[in-house]
Amino acid sequence: MAALAVAFLGHAAGGDEPAALLRYGGGIAVVVAALAFFMRYTGKGSEQ
Fold first, then answer.
1. pLDDT the model gives residue 46
2. How many separate domains does the chain show?
3. Does residue 47 fall inside a structural domain?
4. Which tens digit of pLDDT belongs to each residue from 2-46?
């Protein structure tokens, strides 16, 4: 997760156009949401 944050900040500092940055950030958000969903519903993220 930290690697995704660092990659996003590096991309944001690169000065790309706003639409490209929005698509890049949206892609990262989808990956984070998928990981959170997986951990929540497979029981790997809780002490059950």
1. 57
2. 1
3. no
4. 787 788 878 778 866 888 888 888 888 898 899 889 888 887 655
Residue ranges making up the domain that contains 9:
2-42
**Would 38 be classed as within a structural domain?**
yes
How far apart CA 22 and CA 14 sit, in angstroms, is: 13
In the chain, the amino acid numbered 48 is Q
7: left (phi over 0), alpha (psi -120 to 50) or beta: alpha
Buried-exposed string 16-31: b where 16+ CB fall within 10 A, e elsewhere? eeeeeeeebeeebeee
Task: Record the pTM.
Answer: 0.68
